[in-house]
C-alpha cells in the first residue's frame, strides 16, 4: 500500500479561528464532542489544542481516515482519540455526546444524507446537547450573496445531488428530530454557523 500524504485544505486555516471563536463559549462546560466529516483533520487538531478539557472525536468516511490519523498522530494530543468511520446513511458507531460539530458538509452531501445527519444528531446528542453546523446556507430560497449563488451552481454542475442548503429546510429536518435552532452566527466569506439544541 503506498504511503499516505498528509492532506491539507487552505480553507481550514482561513476559517479555523472564526469557528473556534464561536465554538469555545458554547463548549466551555462540555466534555465530549463528535465531529461529523472531519475531512483533513485540521479543524480537530486546532480546536482540540485550544480546548484541552474537551475530548474531540473525529469521524468520517473510510477513505478520509488515513489522512486524519496523520494529523492526529503529529499533534499528539491526549484529548484527540483515533477517528471513527462514520457514514451518516449507515448505523452510527457512537454513543451519546454533549456536542456535535460539522463544517462544510451539508452542501456536498445529498439531501437524503443531510436529513440522515440530522436524524443521527437527534439520536446521539444528550438532552440539552448542542449541534453546530458551519457552511454556506440560503434563506427562504434566496442566496445570501452572489458568490454563494455561483458556488451553488458550480456544485450542482459537479453533481446534481450537491448544493447549498436552505436554512428553512434544515430547520424542518432538525425539528423532526428534537432539535431547536438557538443561534445563528454570521461568519467570514458569507458563511454561517447555525446552532441547535437537543430538546
UniProtKB/TrEMBL annotation:
Coiled coil: none annotated. It comes from the Bacteria. InterPro entries: DUF938, SAM-dependent_MTases_sf. PANTHER family: UPF0585 PROTEIN CG18661 (PTHR20974:SF0). It comes from Allochromatium vinosum (strain ATCC 17899 / DSM 180 / NBRC 103801 / NCIMB 10441 / D). SUPFAM superfamilies: S-adenosyl-L-methionine-dependent methyltransferases. This is Methylase. Pfam families: DUF938.
